[in-house]
Amino acid sequence: KHSFITVIEAFYINQQVILNETRNTKFELHQNIGFGIKPGFYSGKHSVHLSAGILGVYVFDQNNSGNQFDHFDESYYYGMDYNYDLSNKLSCNFGVILSEFYSRSHFGSAELEEFAVLQFTLHYKIF
User: Fold this and answer.
1) Which of 42, 31, 35 is CA-nearest to residue 117?
2) Among 3, 29, 77, 112, whose Cα sits 20 to 30 Å from the Cα of 42?
3) How far apart are the first and last CA of the chain?
């Protein structure tokens, strides 16, 4: 039988992806904190989910003179993922989330308009 399920998820992603780096500056997508809802269909040990939610996005911008500008703001995301239950408590997950988030470097010409996160995770079910 196919079942419809909904998962509520809170997560933290420590990315530290350098978007632009020169001899004098560094512009980096640093971290995301997210909360979302994932409705999906479950069949046996397999499930497929759509996801949507909100992210707290942290962008790190600095120059070699010791100046630093940190930008933290919200962004909405959407995505899709596939989940496989390894046991009643443990599952593995493969998915992607997409988010539009604009940030411009204060020390260079780099800009961030949107980003995608490809994720592979292991989930442990508490309840």
Assistant:
1) 31
2) 77
3) 22
Instruction: Give residue-wise pLDDT tens across range 6-58.
Output: 888 888 888 878 888 888 888 888 888 999 999 999 888 999 999 999 999 99
C-alpha to C-alpha distance for 28 and 67, rounded to whole angstroms = 14
Whole-prediction pTM value? 0.79
Q: What percentage of the chain's residues is helix, strand, coil (to nearest 5)?
A: 0, 80, 20
d(CA 63, CA 22): 9
The residue type at 58: Y
**Spatial CB neighbours of 122, under 8 Å, sequence gap ≥ 6:** 90, 91, 92, 93
- The distance from CA 83 to its chain's CA centroid, rounded to whole angstroms, is 17
70: Cα separation from own chain's centroid: 18
- d(CA 101, CA 114) in angstroms, rounded, equals 5
Q: Region of 103 please: left (phi>0), alpha (psi -120 to 50) or beta.
A: beta
**Is residue 56 within 8 Å of 15, Cβ to Cβ?**
no
